[in-house]
Amino acid sequence: MSRASTKRGAITHEQREDRGDYDEMLLLDNVGLPYVPPQSAIAAIAPREENPVIFMDISANGGRLNKDGSISQPQLLGRLHFELRCDLIPVVCANFLSLIKGDKGHGRDGILYHYKGVRIHRIVRSRLFQSGDLLNTKGECSRSIYNNGGLFRDENFLLRHTGAGCLSMCNRGPDTNGSLFQVTLSECPDLDERYVVFGCLVDKESFICLNRINNYGTPHG
């Protein structure tokens, strides 16, 4: 355990999961690297084979109090596999990879810099879902590995939100990137030039899971 993780006020995975009030909770149950994609996915990304592919296991409704007093167990919806475009957007991808691995531990503010256990706090049906709030406060806590946890600039807008499965940053305006991210559920050209796209889904299994996530959405998220 790092020194930072023992300081007063440090947030653990367990404490994080108790925060917030959700009727239907979706969770990044597990995240990781590396992921070895099937041959079909390798063929799809062969020109960029040096780019990492990460996974996110998505679960639903774990930790809810049942009528009999028991605690519900999470139900696995599936796994998302993303290729990260380190070849085009290295700064954003390095931040995301670090949060996937959790290799920074706790920041000076006591917050755990790791996506494991983070909730999907917003799902707009047939449009996008958002996650990455490290305190599970419905999109209010965004941290990065840069600037002592501060926000960082928009790297570039080379990639577009061309359809379902595009992975992009979620911000509060220009140059305010941190841990918040979003995944499109359809083409979203209005997000272009506002949010940095830095990855995409790579296989059929991921799109099946994405469709299940969409079913939990509402018209306005």
Q: What topology does this entry show?
A:
Elements (H helix, E strand, L loop, with lengths): L12 H5 L8 E7 L6 H6 L8 E8 L14 E10 L5 H12 L17 E6 L3 E4 L34 E4 L11 E4 L12 E5 L2 H11 L7
Antiparallel strand pairs: 1-2, 1-4, 2-3, 3-8, 4-5, 5-7, 6-7, 6-8
Characterise this structure.
The protein is α+β, with helices and mostly antiparallel strands. The chain contains 4 helices and 8 strands; from the N terminus they run αβαββαβββββα. An 8-stranded antiparallel β-barrel has the order 1-2-3-8-6-7-5-4. Strand 4 and strand 5 form a beta hairpin. The chain is globular, with a radius of gyration of 17 Å. The N terminus is likely disordered.
Quick tags:
single chain, alpha+beta, 4 helices, globular
What is the structure about, briefly put?
It contains four helices and eight strands; from the N terminus they run αβαββαβββββα.
N→C terminal distance: 37 Å
Estimated structural class: alpha+beta
What global shape is seen?
Answer: globular
Number of helices: 4
Rounded to an integer in angstroms, the radius of gyration calculated over CA atoms is 17 Å
The arrangement of helices and strands along the chain is: HEHEEHEEEEEH
Going across the biggest sheet, name each strand in turn.
1-2-3-8-6-7-5-4
Total strands: 8
Q: Give the low-pLDDT segments.
A: 1-9, 17-23
